[in-house]
Design goal:
CATH architecture: 3-Layer(aba) Sandwich
Number of helices: 7
Oligomer: single chain
CATH class: Alpha Beta
CATH topology: Rossmann fold
Number of domains: 1
CATH superfamily: NAD(P)-binding Rossmann-like Domain
Strand content: 15-25%
Number of strands: 6
Radius of gyration: 18 Å
Distance between the termini: 57 Å
């Protein structure tokens, strides 16, 4: 016999995820999370994007992700995860630091352009850092290796 408490333990807990930045990276991440049924709140600095996405039913907050009041409005204090997809490294570092101060147990994934900024993001509180230059290098290496080994599917 399955008890109610056993059923509750088997069900995955609903996660509260905040995505800062709704450019190409933020859109892909948000769409993937929403496709899995994970609710997402977006922080975006482009007012037109906010207006359009609100009409489409997105939970979106206008403002700078480095501003603690914007993080608060987006629910970072209650979130499980913050994904910083904004391309401005300095803004991302400020947002990371502000979010870490607000929510010490928050899981933070930060995007940086260069390896040199990865350590800064870690020091600012990021749990995981995605470095664009390294991801691009890996993708290019994979493309070349596939080509050299006869995989012509991408020609």
């Amino acid at each position: 016999m399955t008890t109610q408490s056993t059923q509750a333990k088997q069900r995955p807990a609903t996660k509260n995820i905040v995505v800062a930045g709704y450019g190409p990276v933020g859109r892909v991440v948000t769409e993937a999370l929403e496709a899995c049924g994970t609710p997402v709140t977006i922080i975006e600095l482009n007012e037109n994007t906010c207006d359009k996405q609100q009409t489409l039913g997105k939970r979106i907050v206008y403002g700078d992700a480095a501003d603690p009041s914007v993080l608060q409005r987006a629910g970072v204090d209650k979130a499980d995860t913050l994904i910083l997809t904004i391309p401005d490294e300095q803004a991302s570092l400020r947002a990371c630091k502000a979010a870490r101060e607000m929510t010490p147990n928050l899981f933070i994934v930060a995007r940086t352009n260069h390896p040199s900024a990865a350590m800064q993001a870690t020091n600012a509180g990021a749990n995981q850092v995605i470095v664009e230059e390294l991801v691009t290098a890996q993708a290019m290496q994979q493309a070349v290796m596939s080509h050299l080994h006869g995989d012509r599917t991408n020609d």
